[in-house]
Amino acid sequence: MFHHLEFRVHCHATEDEEKVLLAFTFVSGVEKPEVTRVKGFHGNPITIFKASIKEARAIRSFWDRVEEAGDLDAIVQSLERSIDRRCRIHLRFDKQEAYQGRIRVVERGDVIALRGKVAAYPARRRRAIEAAQLYFQGG
After folding, report:
1. How many structural domains compose the chain?
2. What is the pTM of this model?
3. Which end of the chain is more exposed for a tag (fewer CB within 10 A), N or C?
4. Residue 22 belongs to domain with CATH number
5. Average pLDDT estimate for 119-133
6. 108 membership: H or E segment, kind and range
7. Over the range 88-112, which residues count as b (16 or more CB within 10 Å of their CB) and which as e?
């Protein structure tokens, strides 16, 4: 039901890169993400970890872990806000909670961002929301 899921997290100079990578790996399930190093507005170093999963089994495994964490109901309730007109789902997971081995969906803060493409035919927002609801309800 998802074409792919893309994960992204920023590691600021004040953070331990290994801890951020551990949190990222815990949420995404990807052990070797793409790493980009950039400079912030004030010249501060920022490391960006990115990864994408496209295999149906890996995507299902991710959502199973979210369900085991107890956050799937919150995601289903937020689908109207989380799915855009291009049929992409946008979610945020708490980075500190992930480092502690917990998956928690949040609205803002220090996050691991998820963007995924919902497989919906025809590709319309309403259809994507319905397809995601059906997918999360086991249909």
Report:
1. 1
2. 0.93
3. C
4. 3.30.1440.10
5. 93
6. none
7. bbebbbbbebbbeebbbbbeeebbb
